[in-house]
Design brief:
By secondary structure, the chain is an alpha+beta fold. The chain has one domain. The protein is built from three helices and eight strands; from the N terminus they run E-E-E-E-H-H-E-E-E-E-H. Strand 5 and strand 6 form a beta hairpin. It is globular and about 40 Å long.
Amino acid sequence: MNCPRCRHRTLSSAYREAPSQPVALLDERHASGATLHRCKSCFAVFAPHGSLELVESHARDLARVRVPDGEMVRRAFAPTRPSRAAIRCPACDGEMNEREWRTATLVFVDVCAECRGVWLDPEEFEALEATFRSER
């Protein structure tokens, strides 16, 4: 699988006009046991369908912290961010659509309509883990 966002170019001026090469995703085992696929260039993560449930369960087991009510209100009324252009799924080449992970989480992910895999940019994966730890 290749990263749908990154293309690698050689920095040498002689090769600036050369076609860019796809960046392969590397398999990575999460502490939860889930197999994730991480881009070695931008550090984004592709999570096959079902693997984020393992990450969520693991995060909740590690930290059973109550979210302050004020934090839930802040999340519910936070401004939305502008959406980006759709990307292609690295697993099946289906179109991925951006959506909020859950209402009021403020974590936006790209979900494949075909295989239901999830693409998370680097900051999104860490934010999602923090959300899992803090949800009631």
